[in-house]
Amino acid sequence: MLYLGIDVGSVSTDLVLLDHGLQVVEKHYLRTRGNPIRAIQEGFRLLADQYGDREIAACGTTGSGRQIASVLVGADVVKNEITAHAVAALELDPDVKTIIEIGGQDSKIILLRNGVVSDFAMNTVCAAGTGSFLDRQAERMGISIEEFGDYALKAETPVRIAGRCAVFAESDMIHKQQMGYNQSDIIMGLCEALVRNYLNNVGKGKDIRPKVFFQGGVAANRSMKIAFERALGFEVTVPENHKMMGAIGAAILARDAVRKRARTRFRGFSLVEKHFESKGFECEGCSNRCEVARICENGMEIGCFGDRCGIWSGRIRTCRPIADSL
Amino acid sequence: MKVTIPHMGNVYIAAKALFEGLGVDYVIPPLNSRAALEIGSLHSPEEICLPFKILVGNYIQAIEQGADTVIVTGSCGPCRFGEYSEMHMKLLRRLGYKVDFIVIDAPKSIGFKELLARISRLTAHSPGTKGRKWLALAQAVRIMGLLDAVEAKAHEKAGYEKVRGTCKNLLKKCRQEAYSCGSPDKMLDCLNGYNRMMNEVPCDRTVTPLKIAIIGEIYTVIEPFSNLYIEDKLMDRGISTRRLMTPSWWIRNTLLSPAGLNSPGIKTASRDYLPYYIGGHARECVGEAILSWKSGFDGAIQIFPMGCMPEIVSKAILPTIARDKDFPILSLVVDEMTGEAGYVTRIEAFVDMLERRRNHVVSGY
Question: Closest Cα of chain B to A75: distance in Å?
Fold first, then answer.
């Protein structure tokens, strides 16, 4: 009996398998590279070698690609990232009060009180300070993203970087480089700027109390953790599976959903061999002109979404799970 | 003269009845879509709020269909909307369009005489008698009231309906059918019929759906295109919603405000947090948050366009209300850059949160 959780994010696609005691038995962290279907297939190929379809008792999807993933794999639950992250963190430690989550393209803060989400916020207009931006800076400086955070640990006097906007932050970094500051100090300065930006934007007016969990791909960056601790004045915990927390949450939620329903909708690992194609088109049925995405499996339509009236998305009922089992 | 009006929710249906009742030539621009917004964004200042841009799109689309006179409401209040009609006139003139504006403003700001003078610019082209014109106006106001009533019932009943989607489909049919009616009399009959049908939608009143109040800036809460059809999305999830801001509310409020008799409930409710009118509908937003908390709602969603000055003030006040009353409030900012994915994620997470909070209280964990 295993529970499968899939988190299809902008940058990474994560798959986890949890056992009966909700311990992680298998985890895969793959790059989405703008093609969620291929990423899921790649992940399934890795799992199909060791596990059979019958071992999967429940399957849940989350992340920005949760809809497409749910159509593909036959998910029991399709949940937003906020709920998924909160569920995973609470499972690990019921005392957690705040979750800082920084992913590829968005950052969130989730406040938990008495074991439920009491408030949350997401970055609104700008992606400055998220994983994609750090990726880009690491690439520009010729440092691999895995080592990027460790570079900053050597910093003695962090340089002040203007972190309000990604483009200006980059110009400011270039300017500081041209002035001759050393790389470590600049990277640490960047981390501090991103933390400042996060606390002033996403965390604005939020009562951040310990215990704080720092989740998402960016939590791998040790300097970001230190910058957060410096700014908040208390310890910040990075859970071992910080990158996979969304997927873990989806797996736990799927287990709960199947308990109510008694049967999983999981369609099996065989999708590895199938040929999937997604096409977007503009519906001309009315003046709304919705952009509809159509997913086809071996030439057969298995799901559509993006339309408002339901004329497309309502066409296939058999394999399309109801979004969010509210 | 060929008149037109910009879109705001169901106003176009009542406007059609008014123009037909008066017997004046009119154009209703195509329903709001990305096309309208794209035209609007192209010609508008970048930092201006979303309603401005959509309005420009509406005007240009209507002008292309032959409209030469725009009827729009004004407001001499401290919100930037007060200047929009002037700015729109200038902008359209600069683009080479020849178009006249009739700006209907509150009698408090421009006086009754001026208001009547402006209205007569429209009615002068009507062939009917004076009595006929008054009747057309009364019928249009009645139609607006019925549309708002049918819509409010659909939104409320969506949580209780026995077959999910009944209310949403009925509401959709109601709009389509009312709009295709040939005369104001027929439209009134049609709407009365739908009002009855809406009353008779089979409901199960024993269930306890989530109840969410929609509050915020008047245009973005009323015009579904601007808020990415939030009310439809919530109806799909079987959530009961309430929105006090409607075109009928605006008419009533505007007529009663010179005597200070407008919205007594909102005035009392907002007293502790925002006792002044600071422009736009910020005070209404704060008042509605309190009112919905008092009437047992699970939470409220505030919607406003990016850069809206009055709503930024209320946004800053709402967290205090949320804390004091333990009443979750989600603020959503919309503009032409709003990505639907992130927007839906926020709504889903908010609904989830309300659901989980409730289960928590019930189970006494």
Answer: 17
